[in-house]
Amino acid sequence: MASIDLKMAWRNVWRNPRRTMLTICAIAFACLLLVFMLSWQFGSYETMINSAVKIHTGHLQIQAEGYRDKNDIRLVVDDPAAIGRRLEALPRVDTYTFRADAFSLVSSKERTYGVLVIGIDPEREARTSTLSRSLQEGRYLEAGDADEALVGKLLAKNLRIVPGDELVLLGQGRDGSVAATVVRVKGIYASGQDDYDRSTIQIPLPYFQEVYAMGGSVHEVVVLGRTLKDVPVIKEAISEGLKSEDPESGLVVLDWMELMPGLVEAIQIDLYSGFIFYFLLIVVVAFSILNTFLMAILERKKEFGVIMAMGTTPGRLVRLLLLESSAMTLVGIFIGTLAGILVTWYYQVHGFHISGAADVLRQFGLPERIHPRLSAASILIGPAAVLIITGLTALYPALRVRRLRPVEAIAKG
Amino acid sequence: MYLRLGWRNIWRNPRRTTVILIAIIIGVWSMIFLGALMRGMTDQMIRNGIATLTGHIQIHQRDYRNDPAVENSIEDPAPIEAALDERLPTGAHWSARIRVTATAANARYAGGVTLVGVDPQMEARVSFIGKAIKEGRYLREDDPFGIVVGRALAEKFETGLGKKLVLMTQDTEKNIASRAFRIVGIYRAEMEATEKQFVFVTLPAAREMLKLEKGISEISILLPGHEMVAATLASLRDAPPLSGCDVESWRNLLPLMRAYLEIYDSFIFLWYLVVFIAMAFGIVNTTLMAIFERIREFGLFKSLGMKPWWIIKEVMAESFFLLLLGILIGNILSFLSVFLLMNHGIDLTRFAAGSEFFGISRVIYPSVYGRDVLLANLVVFILGLVVSLYPALKAARFKPVEALAHV
User: Fold this and answer.
1) Is residue A59 assigned to a domain?
2) Per-domain residue ranges for chain B?
């Protein structure tokens, strides 16, 4: 019986091919758009997260409690080497590095600016962040370097310096003493994020520790996992290790979401507002096609009257009608999703250029050409929502059939 | 007559008409209402940008924007100020400032800030600071060591009213100048980043610290309305005392903001198109159904001598009423929703860090732009009529004999 129902439904769908095609097109349009948009959004979130992680924060950081809010130079990680050994024992950790920061006055011959001086381990840093690759002029730091510095591009412009020039650093050491030194500019970097490029310089960590009286301590241990998905596992492993070794260590493990709450919430805002738009779009589509479902029933009252008079139960009739509408919906969803995948895939390979938006995108760590990225979620969420909402739409006319009285239906036709 | 025929015809099947009307209404509502929310967001971005010291127009020394250092000050602002008083429209306000990057430090912390030296009265009329003091008091004319800082900065530095804050910066002689101030007021701003960035002192205090005689870094002008920017800009650029200066509108001073606005413009238009396409399928389908049901009727008309052109007009009259009704109700609902949100807005405080990241306000109020409403309505109305041509042509081409034979 089921196969007869199926066959009947399929044939009924094509009794009015023009109407069916228009309905399928409406559904397909919504699916195509949703697959593309969601792949676009998810793709750019991933790029935003990755570039923020690669430029500044890493996936995780181990810091003294309170350092993130206060940036107090005295809140340090005393024994970074011990934490390094612990990290090396974790298979999911890809790489890690140490950093120390201090706010200082930096003067060139002509200009003075207040900047964040960051001490880095050149070799480890190169593996952890994009710093070494974002060099625009000069050369990157090497292991043996001491009084040399890398300077952000906009800061270099403000200080009017080029590689080879000298800079005077003046700040306060960890012990409250005056920290002062002269460094030579070795290279100039451009992360693309203006704030960062305007306010940071990087010097070798051992030299930093000497100038700022840090001893062997650092402020941040920056960890990169193999993938974003490894972050919670690594976080738990490190936290427990720290706790079991010394519950009073005063160290905390922060993941990228805690390090960049703004980015996480910005993604939520973007996602939720996107959902509002998509929902309304699907509702408009649903009402657009509701008439098809409705007409398919009202037109055929007489026919239904006849088959009911011949013994078809109302339940079977409802099932038959739902089969018809779901056949239409499914064909539309299938075509739309397929087309969506193809279109998205094309842009995934070739990139999508938004003209005039390069400057804005750069501030979010996004390249000028955006590559949407297909994923199970981006392919399935949109069409699933379409299926549910159009399914609910089809329910109303189908259920109305139950009220049909065969005799009246045949008589009125 | 077509109109009356069309109007009666759409109500021959009220349920079907209602369904397609709902599609149009929701579509129009989503266009206008969501458009108003997006505009509200960008409006507030602009308002914040302008209030956060930019103003509508700024005047700088020619090299200042490229190299914002104390040497690139306007050395003698007096003739410029005289020209401003003469040329600015009534209701406009201006404020001359010294603005340099500096390091703020207390016993425990140090950090980068922007030191802004202002005339307290004039500044209060131009930027946000006049209404932003939440603790203590605002600067006074005679306040050589008073400083006003943002709440986020005060928290970060673990400091408060009456405490000392030392500012260091480079003076005109290229030496490092430092001066100890006492916090007299704490302000709140829309963005935490603003609270951390700007500290305000009086002009004389800043001049003394920087060893400037009369010089200033910038003049910021607030006009009574956005629409006056272009004319004022042109008038100021013509003024002889300003000939050596860089006079710019906020659009060029905030290039990122301008890029944002352009992105939103295209996004709003795309959204209109997408929603329209979604409802267009329904409009075409419904009208097609309506004419195929009446295929005999059209055959009869034709055999009675009705020209195909008249049939087209009749079918188009039906779409005309559908679209008109949908647009009308959609607009009414949109304005109602905007009206309901006018007072309270949409509160994004839960996502405060996220809205800060985007540079938008914590509460979004809808803002209706006439041209958006017009565009939305035109898209629906004109494109709606265009797609209805298809069923109309279909109806006009029915052959009388076949149509009459149709069951």
Assistant:
1) no
2) 2-49+257-405, 63-243
